[in-house]
């Protein structure tokens, strides 16, 4: 079951999101409900009552949503760089030539270039299982699931490998569940969407939003000028089947952006995921830096009182400092993850407000500066 919350005030339970949705029941103040999902950009939450009634409620009429919203944010994960590192490790530290070049291209967010390089190389000699595995990853990130599955199966046939098997499972889930067949190109992005779910006009609006948000992110962070970012809009059901994400997840970045679509405003979610895409192409970064910047770029702010509370928790060693928040937040409890997200946003806020956007960009161009920045932000937050 998802996070339990209670009804704040008497509220209608509706059969669909919005004031015009058919009435299902009237919820009483203090009544507990289980939150199953939220529609991004709408403020609508799908809940189930203790009596088993299911429907939609406006978020302002619910109390205790913090844990659920933290879980939802934790679903926005960066899998691509982890896949590259895992597969790169299985290829071997001594990889050189085309293998090394392909790994570097994948880490820079250039899967199409990597795939072209590997396919050219494979025409010149034997189809090595390591090269086949990298070609499979490159094809998957290049939004070519069928080619990815073919390469990954060939690699496994030659040499079993757990990381390759995991990637093959992803490719096969996508081939089975992903019905997003139409493509629309923007300045910075490529949108793939389900024509039965998203109209051509709505797709053009989404591409416009993504280009606008990516331009803003680029102005603030200085993204690498490389290949266009691929984004995929799916029905909530297809999204969960393809990604195996929980019902409350509202977006993922796994080398491509995936978002469940229900006709709502996706600007904040897309800005968050586009920031992850930008950062993934710039290098390897700790989780707090990824999540702090993604929250800032989507427009989140932290009240001064909450920032002061973060500093107090750090001083008393109740919760870790930024320097100890380098790993993914997904395995944290809801309480710890909520703190980690707030601490990440607090740190990034101090970086921008007190050190300046130019300094933040310099850190993104020179990753060796980040440990020094992290220590300074910890010090300032604890003042």
Secondary-structure element sequence?
EEEEEEEHHHHHHHEEHEHEEHHHHHH
What is the share of helical residues? 40-55%
Biggest sheet character: 5 strands, antiparallel
C-alpha termini separation = 40 Å
Count the strands?
Answer: 12
CATH topology of the largest domain: Glutaredoxin
Radius of gyration: 22 Å
Q: CATH top level of the largest domain? A: Alpha Beta
**CATH superfamily caption of the largest domain:** Collagenase ColT, N-terminal domain
Report a brief summary of the structure:
This protein is an alpha+beta fold and 383 residues long. The chain contains 15 helices and twelve strands.
Structural key phrases:
4 domains, Glutaredoxin, alpha+beta, 15 helices, 383 residues, five-stranded antiparallel sheet, Serine Threonine Protein Phosphatase 5, Tetratricopeptide repeat
Textual characterization of the structure:
The structure is a single chain. This protein has 383 residues and is an alpha+beta fold. It has 4 domains: 4-64, SH3 Domains (SH3 type barrels), CATH 2.30.30.40; 80-177, Serine Threonine Protein Phosphatase 5, Tetratricopeptide repeat, CATH 1.25.40.10; 182-282, 3-Layer(aba) Sandwich (Glutaredoxin), CATH 3.40.30; 299-381, no CATH class. It contains 15 helices and 12 strands. The protein has helices spanning 66-74, 80-91, 98-107, 111-122, 129-141, 145-158, 162-177, 200-221, 236-243, 267-282, 287-297, 304-315, 334-355, 357-365, 370-381; strands at residues 4-7, 11-14, 23-27, 32-39, 44-49, 54-58, 62-63, 182-185, 189-193, 229-234, 252-253, 257-260. Helix 4 runs antiparallel to helix 5 (129-141) and helix 7 packs antiparallel against helix 9 (236-243). The longest helix is centred in the middle third of the chain and has 22 residues, at 200-221. It is globular, with a radius of gyration of 22 Å. It starts with a strand and ends with a helix.
